[in-house]
Amino acid sequence: MSETTQPTFSELLPPEIINMIGRLEFLARTAKEGTINGRHTSPHKGFSVEFAEHRQYVSGDDLRNLDWRVYGKSDRYYIKQFIEETNMRVTLLVDASGSMKYSGDESADLGGKQNLSKFEYARFLASALSYLLIRQQDAVGLVTFAEEVKTYLRPAAKPSQVRTILEELARTEPSDDTRCADTFHQIADQIPSRGLVIVISDLFDDAEAIKNALHHFRFKNHELVVFHLMAEEELTFPFEKFDDFKCLEVEGRRLNIDPSTIRASYLDRVSAHLKAIELACGQMEADYVPINTKTPVPEALFTYFSQRKA
């Protein structure tokens, strides 16, 4: 297993990602509240492109927006209202707990790094999404977390926000225990307005607790995307030798076991956990995106965006 090292700004946006992002677009599925005109549907009415409804004329309204055909039929003045487009507020939640340090022998390579750990993989995902979303004038913020929130950068749409986010990701190292559910509740109370929340995590916590925490985001009218990262070895448990298994979250904790004696039970529990998270996301109409870290990052992103667009 490789140790994580601090990448440079340019290393977090290698050519493979930059080239791919030029072909992608991230559109919100539900109405969003924003601060500038953009490409997402706003819950407010304006005078943009897509017709929404009529309302009765009041003194001071722009006469250019009168619907003369309605006037001809009803002898009453009505104003045409249109759907206003807006930018989107996005918060990236990146798991920086100890379990994210794991990198298997089959993990993907990118940007000169071999056998990416789950955290390195998450860092590339978050970097790519930040660059894409800010490029289309959306406001993007970042939260890194483990037992509690480590970093909270408020969403901003300015180009310099990309560098701010990438520099913070470069400084962050995975450590401590996982407290996904508690942290999600804390973050849901902090994020203002309806927006988009993107979770990037291995979700090593109680499935029912995670479900309740994700519901907190939906209760606050956030759209939700969950990138569930797992290494190939975590999904298949291919180990054969009787050996020490080291806990990445609690210093000094080890288990000396024969893998063959627990393989069936382990795989059953992993399968049940994955199904529970996927079902929970489906019930709350969140995008559930399972990712095996052996899949190259550009391929994983392109597949997700293709499916979302379809």
Short account of what is shown:
The protein has 310 residues and is an alpha/beta fold.
Strand and helix layout:
Blueprint: H1 15-21, E1 40-46, E2 50-56, H2 68-74, E3 78-86, E4 89-95, H3 118-135, E5 139-145, E6 149-156, H4 160-171, H5 180-190, E7 196-201, H6 207-219, E8 223-230, H7 232-236, E9 243-246, E10 254-257, H8 259-283, E11 287-292, H9 297-309
Helix pairs in contact: 3-4, 5-6, 6-8
Overview of this structure, please?
By secondary structure, the protein is α/β, with parallel strands linked by helices. It folds into two domains: 10-27 and 88-309, 3-Layer(aba) Sandwich (Rossmann fold), CATH 3.40.50.410; 40-86, no CATH class. The protein has nine helices and eleven strands. The strands form three sheets. It has a six-stranded mixed sheet with strand order 6-5-4-7-8-11, with helices on both faces. Helix 3 links the parallel strand 4 and strand 5 (139-145). Helix 5 (180-190) packs parallel to helix 6 (207-219) and helix 6 packs parallel to helix 8. The protein is elongated. The two termini are 37 Å apart.
Can you tag this structure with a few keywords?
310 residues; alpha/beta; Rossmann fold; six-stranded mixed β-sheet; three-stranded antiparallel β-sheet
Tell me, briefly, the overall form.
elongated
So, the CATH homologous superfamily of the largest domain? von Willebrand factor, type A domain
Order of helices and strands: HEEHEEHEEHHEHEHEEHEH
* Uncertain regions spanning at least 5 consecutive residues: 34-38, 40-52
Count of helical stretches = 9
Rounded radius of gyration (Å): 23 Å
The beta-strand count equals 11
- Helix and strand content put the structural class at alpha/beta
Tally of discrete structural domains: 2
Residue-averaged pLDDT, rounded?
Answer: 83
Residue share in helix = 25-40%
In terms of DSSP E residues, the strand content is 15-25%
| Strand line-up across the major sheet | 6-5-4-7-8-11
Largest sheet: 6 strands, mixed
* CATH topology category name of the largest domain: Rossmann fold
CATH architecture of the largest domain: 3-Layer(aba) Sandwich
In the CATH scheme, the class of the largest domain would be Alpha Beta
Q: Termini distance?
A: 37 Å
